[in-house]
């Protein structure tokens, strides 16, 4: 069974649609990343989306996360309405990855409680349910099929895309709205800072000088179905390290397993992969184990596949990261469909590879040009606790 991904609807600090995002990641435009001050008075570097480009979402609980989600969904609204009309509301699923639990209204509500010993009159614990970003889509488009939310940190939206595919393959639905949404809220910034995982400068993945993550807002959604389109979801692979609550298995064994499963699932040989969008968070342990995993699968065969992480441009959008990076892979395939000499997404960093890691073929501005037709893209997502997921997209 062949599954196709529609043109994505995306929002990020690097672009308010897929074309703008593509221009940013191929040019290395980091202007969307700025210093912000959180509610604790501390200053952070973050990739936030400006409120100026967002409109009211119409959600029951109006929050920035919903405005971003709605803006991305509006870009593919016609595609969503088309599958609902074609297959019926009960034959369409919603699968969303997110880590946000109504943090904006929750923080405001608790601040009022601590100041006045009561919550706002309109405050509801419903906003803290992880399902809200998914039920919003079902309500907005009248979808009555399965509605699922996935919260496995950085791999959340990869899991959502995979589950949407599995629901279609099982014959439970005929189409699914899949993707992810997250924001770099104050509580998220403070929380990651407490883990000493946030960089004081823009993230610098795989460098010997890397300091940590740059967090960001983002959303990306697709319609996934059997309806013939330009780009296929060829396969996927998942694994769970069960090594530590936050740290990955330092050997990279769990990530390697997910990569190998994705290749097997897709029927793609390692030599066929033309580009890998790395997870590349810029943290010491995550970059280390990912480099080992990629090298074990590709480097062991002498394959120097072009790789890059786009997080120095988009920021790490957590639950939305996998879907946003799948959208970048989608666009890379579209741009290079039966064409040569196009550019791949570049990695903006200091160029000083960590010598303790396997040396990857990292795409920079000098090496971004593809001389052969790009037919297969690979996207890695390796999350807290070793929740690993890889997606394979192709023409």
Automatic annotation (TrEMBL):
Keyword Transferase on entry: yes
Record Gene3D superfamilies: 3.40.47.10
A Gene Ontology molecular function term of the record: 3-oxoacyl-[acyl-carrier-protein] synthase activity
Stored Pfam families: ketoacyl-synt, Ketoacyl-synt_C
GO biological process, one term: fatty acid biosynthetic process
Keywords: Transferase
GO CC terms, sorted: cytosol
Ketosynthase family 3 (KS3) domain ranges (all copies): 1-395
Similarity field: Belongs to the thiolase-like superfamily. Beta-ketoacyl-ACP synthases family.
Protein name per the record: 3-oxoacyl-[acyl-carrier-protein] synthase-1
Species whose genome carries this gene: Treponema bryantii
Lineage, top ranks: Bacteria, Pseudomonadati, Spirochaetota, Spirochaetia, Spirochaetales
């Amino acid at each position: 069974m062949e599954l196709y991904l529609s043109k994505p609807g995306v929002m990020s600090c690097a672009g308010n649609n897929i074309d703008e995002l593509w221009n940013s990641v191929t040019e290395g435009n980091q202007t969307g990343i700025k210093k912000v001050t959180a509610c604790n008075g501390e200053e952070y570097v973050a990739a936030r989306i400006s409120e100026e480009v967002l409109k009211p979402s119409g959600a029951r609980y109006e929050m920035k996360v919903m405005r971003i989600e709605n803006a991305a969904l509006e870009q593919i609204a016609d595609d969503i309405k088309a599958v609902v009309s074609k297959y019926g509301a009960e034959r369409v699923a919603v699968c969303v990855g997110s880590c946000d639990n109504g943090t904006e209204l929750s923080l405001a509500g608790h601040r009022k409680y601590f100041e006045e010993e009561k919550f706002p009159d309109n405050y509801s614990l419903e906003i803290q349910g992880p399902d809200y970003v998914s039920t919003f889509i079902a309500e907005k488009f009248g979808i009555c099929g399965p509605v699922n939310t996935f919260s496995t940190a950085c791999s959340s939206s990869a899991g959502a895309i995979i589950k949407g595919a599995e629901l279609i393959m099982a014959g439970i639905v005929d189409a699914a709205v899949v993707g992810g949404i997250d924001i770099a809220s104050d509580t998220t910034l403070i929380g990651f800072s407490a883990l000493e995982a946030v960089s004081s400068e823009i993230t610098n993945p795989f460098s010997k000088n890397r300091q940590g993550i740059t967090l960001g807002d983002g959303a990306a959604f697709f319609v996934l179905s059997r309806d013939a389109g330009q780009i296929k979801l060829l396969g996927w692979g998942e694994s769970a390290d069960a090594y530590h609550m936050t740290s990955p298995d330092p050997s990279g064994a769990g990530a390697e397993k997910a990569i190998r499963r994705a290749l097997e699932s897709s029927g793609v040989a390692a030599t066929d992969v033309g580009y890998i969008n790395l997870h590349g968070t810029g943290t010491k342990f995550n970059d280390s184990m990912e480099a080992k995993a990629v090298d074990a699968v590709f480097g062991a065969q002498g394959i120097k596949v072009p790789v890059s992480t786009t997080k120095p441009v988009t920021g790490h959008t957590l639950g939305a990261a996998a879907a946003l990076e799948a959208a970048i892979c989608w666009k890379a395939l579209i741009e290079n469909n039966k064409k040569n000499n196009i550019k791949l997404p570049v990695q903006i960093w200091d160029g000083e590879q960590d010598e303790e890691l396997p040396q990857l073929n990292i795409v920079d501005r000098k090496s971004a040009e593809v001389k052969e037709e790009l037919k297969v893209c690979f996207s890695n997502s390796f999350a807290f606790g070793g929740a690993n997921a890889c997606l394979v997209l192709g023409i």
